[in-house]
Amino acid sequence: MAMVIEIPCPSCEKVLKVPESVFGKKIKCKHCGEPIQVDDLDDLEAEEKKKAKKPSKPGGAVKVKKEEPKKEEPKKEEPKPAAAPYKFEDDDDQGGAKPNPLKAIEEEDVARCPFCAKELDPPDAKVCLHCGFNNLTRERAESKRVWAPDSSDYMNHLGPGVAALFICIVLIVLDIICLVNMRDWLTGSFLETDEADPTNPDRKKLMVRPGAFITLIWAATVMPIIGTARFAIKRLAIDNKPMEKVKK
Fold first, then answer.
1. 80 vs 33: CA distance, rounded Å
2. Distance (Å, rounded) from C-alpha 219 to C-alpha 151?
3. What phi and psi, each to the nearest 5 degrees, are found at residue 150?
């Protein structure tokens, strides 16, 4: 069994039990944390022998001094003991067991939001679902509470688009009807002459060609057709969701 001796701490004067393995080394007091030099085993035995011997003069009488009563001094507050870096095997505290070493908690390498540190779902998500942070623009989207759209909201939003689509279709059909029937409409009118048509002898010549009226009608309807078609595409295909109503 290893040798264990008791030595007093020069700072806090508390007795420490030290094993043989620290003889001749410097240790720290487990109570106050101050360094203590532990002598070798030979030096400790020599000090014990010196203390055992009492010096006396030959033939002289031993003078006994009366001890004067000591004045009680106010007790000084002892410093709080610092945490010991290690414990000896025969310490009474916690059975001399060494404290558990600190360990780092291992965590899987997952993609996390740089703003709220929560896991991104999916890992390559551009916007965090928890806080609204955009990983591309490095900005956080403003969160707001809105009402869910109902059937009346969809009707009010998509109704103008349906009407514009209907007008566009009507104008296109009108242009096609004029292209097909303009010659028949002008036959028998005041624009028809008695001369035969050079292109078709069976018909009479017209003072104004049917293509002029067709061109005039197309010129008048082309801009409304383009405008209504663009509005219908935007409202029915691109922006087909009603506007959000923010809760107050």
1. 10
2. 39
3. -110, -170
* CB count in 10 Å sphere of residue 174: 14
Of 166, 174, 170, 187, which Cα lies nearest the Cα of 216? Answer: 174
Q: Residue 115 in contact with residue 131, Cβ under 8 Å?
A: yes
- Cα 88 to its chain centre, rounded Å, is 46
**Could you give the CA distance from residue 248 to residue 242 in angstroms, rounded to a whole number?**
18
36-55 pLDDT tens trace: 777 776 666 666 666 666 55
Backbone torsion region of residue 2, taken as left when φ is above 0, otherwise alpha when ψ lies between -120 and 50, otherwise beta: beta
Task: Return d(Cα 27, Cα 138) in angstroms, integer.
Answer: 54
The neighbouring-strand residues paired with 199 are: none
Whole-angstrom distance, CA of residue 183 vs CA of residue 172: 19
Q: Tens of pLDDT along 111-158?
A: 888 888 888 888 888 888 888 888 888 888 777 778 888 889 889 999
Question: Which residues in 87-113 are b (16+ Cβ under 10 Å) and which e?
Answer: bbeeeeeeeeeeeeeeeeeeeeeeeeb
Q: Does the N-terminal peptide bond of residue 224 adopt cis geometry, omega within 30 degrees of 0?
A: no
- Name all contacts of 8-12 with Cβ < 8 Å and 24+ positions apart: 9/34, 9/36, 10/34, 10/36, 12/78, 12/79, 12/81
Rounded Cα distance, 235 and 228, in Å: 10
Q: Shortest CA distance to 19 belongs to which of 32, 33, 35, 6? A: 6
Global pTM? 0.42
